[in-house]
Sequence to fold (338 residues):
Amino acid sequence: MQTLIVGVGALGGLIGARLRATGARVWFATRDEASASRLRASGLRVSGVGGAADVAAPDVAALDAYPAGLGFDLVLLATKAHEAMELAPRIARWIEPGGTLVPIQNGAVSQLLADRLGHERVLGGLSNLGATMHAPGAFEQRNAGHLLIGELGGGQSPRAERVRAWLGQGVEVRVTPNLQGAIWSKLLLNCSVTTIGAIAGCTMRAYVGTPEGRVVFDRAYDEALSVAGASGARPERMMVEPIPPGWSGRAVPAPEHEAWLAEVLRGYGDLKPSMLQDFERGRTTEVDFINGYVADLGRTLGIATPVNAAIVETVHRITRGDLRPDRSNLVAIAATAR
Fold:
């Protein structure tokens, strides 16, 4: 498959390097010519889980430098969410008839792009691969994770199998008939674990032990799960069971619920939130596509989401410099809980 990877950060670089190491030709698009020049000079190097790989990267150019007549069977969109929404309409003109765009961002990006560009052009995706970029062109694979792809309308399809077989030469790729459910399962944890930890400036284990931290976690999760159910999605088990024991619209205090929470903590409790790293590096966050998506869809469906809305506003205030990440931010958010 004639393949273009847009975004050569941790995930795009890792996937592209692994695929090129099999002998496949892969094109890469960067945000500017300076980035492209560095990658052409350095090549792509991968370490960590899955073994080392060191490959040349001759087919790298700034996105604006790609000629109009070039066509691709597969475009893997590995940028941040806001960049994906901005770039996808431009990139779509390079997709050959019958070709496919696969976004792998957090949140609702796949669904939003399918609604904009057409479901026949977009195959949904998300990533459970852990990757770090140590320097331009140098990537470390941190876990034995995988890409998950599937039709946003549900069910199986020949194109999903073709994409799985092609990308699967480099990294593990799985196909699910319930991608919407998988997206929501990850979104539930992004809405709670990732954004709350970023706002608090600490890990989940550190904030969830405080009264306000526990309230914000429970209510953010409850709201997101209520919106998922109202939208018709069926969240499916990923790392943990997405629906807590005895859940009927709100978390139910009980030993079974505490055991479920302990399972979440085992998987995510000690991780530094990626959004906190965005704050530290001055990057735009993906909160509008995570908690913001839940709040927006909740309004459409008539589901109240005050805690998720307050989380979005707090993240924006931190981004503007009005606040800094601190556990005290959770007190005001907890006060919005119903």
